Amino acid sequence: MSDSTTIGFGGRENPIMLQGFAWDMAADSSHWRFLADNASLIADSGVTAIWLPPAYKGQEGVNDVGYGVYDTYDLGEFDQKGTIPTKYGTKDEYVAAVAALRAAGMTVLADIVLNHRMGADGTEEVRATEVDGADRRKPIADPTTITTWTRFTFPGRHGTYSDFTWDHTCFLGTDWDERTRRNSVWLFEGKEWNEDVTDERGNFDYLMGADVDLNNPRVSDELISWGRWYLETTGVDGVRLDALKHMSREFYRRWLPALREATGREVPAVGEFWSRDAEELCAYLGEEPIMSMFDTPLHYRLYHASFKDRFDLSKIFERTLVEADPDHAITFVENHDTQPGQSLQSFVEPGFKPAAYALILLREAGTPCVFWGDLFGTPETGDLSACLELPLLMRLRRSLAYGPQHDVFNAADLVGFAREGDDAHPGSGLAVVLSTGVAASKRLYVGARHAGERWICAIGGHGAVTIGGDGSAEFSVSETGLSVYVPASARPIIDRGMTRLVRVR
């Protein structure tokens, strides 16, 4: 994948994207330094692209994960919301981390949140209509005057970088009336929800905070100007786009090409559209995609498969984006929103997680994204433990997962696939068997090129097998649910330990 419609790994083989954060990381403003200090170690683990958390000041200051967007020009530089640094550090530290990660050979993606603003500096009196929270198309009261937090003047920044200030004309609606101290959803007078959004809740344009009016020419021009400033200031390569299902589809079809033209750069983009319906994702991408998208339908299939007694493994990829459009599918097992306690909690059960990662890392279709919490755990909260097999699976992807793929997905409780390897990667090839907790075996074809070879079990604890003259062998799996076999010559890859990151304060 190398054109601007995809993640843009610059021709890298078997790319791996890393989500470079989890939700409850310590609010000690050290993460940018941590990433810079460990950039080479992260790259050595097989990561070719890294998605960084939102870098700008949020309404909760140093405690804001970054999605409660206050000032997108404040990257930890100005005394606003009770702090100069963000949760992750200062602007200078962010720019240095981006430079270090890029110098280590990784594509760097910035998390971009343009759907809403929060933590306004002042209120306004605005005429608005209260709408039904379950169906935002339906008014439930006559128009009235409410007091809204919609004045964003950024007094701590004093107009540095941009003198643009926000008022109610820049927004479509809000969820709080300061006058009555009441929470609901209000549509501002003279405004309409965008139609090219998901039809959940009638119309799911409104998500939270003050909902940005992306079709207001003044706002649109400012966001394009800001995007160019951000790319040029930070040095990031591309963007991860938040909350697409709540935003006008046409906005990013204007915004991304405008940034690509203005900067003369590829600006790879990955969009988050949280839907279980692959057809909805394909419709958003359209006939001429301008980005890749996270395969949320596959995430849910992995989630349900982790409850092993209730899922048909032979159908694991049915109705997923990676099945429908593998060139634009970013596959993932977990992310910050699926962690325990989060709004989209749907974490894959630990016993199935190695198999889930094998399904996205070792196959030929899609680009896998590894979650920080699965690679390193979440010691701050203890809600996720590191997936111990994950570093090895990443190494196997980088070194061995090449060549034609042969699937045997013909049983509900037992499936397998193999990669033949190729001449460009001597010693490559692998075989994978997965089960829903049953001990069994699967005959897989690994290619005539491997006839007579001895293959060892890298994951699963089984003995070695000899590949038959026809290029096939019987591969065993135990109740643990995953076995991965590789040529015996790959032993050094298996024996290499996990990358250990170091925290330097």
From TrEMBL:
Top-level division of the source organism's lineage: Bacteria
MF (Gene Ontology): alpha-amylase activity; calcium ion binding
Domain Glycosyl hydrolase family 13 catalytic: start-end pairs: 15-418
Binding site for Ca(2+) 3: 413
E.C. designation(s): 3.2.1.1
Signal peptide (residue range): none
Residues annotated to bind Ca(2+) 2: 213
Cofactor: Ca(2+)
GO biological process, one term: carbohydrate metabolic process
Keyword line: Calcium, Carbohydrate metabolism, Glycosidase, Hydrolase, Metal-binding
Family in the record: Belongs to the glycosyl hydrolase 13 family.
Name listed for the protein in its UniProt record: Alpha-amylase
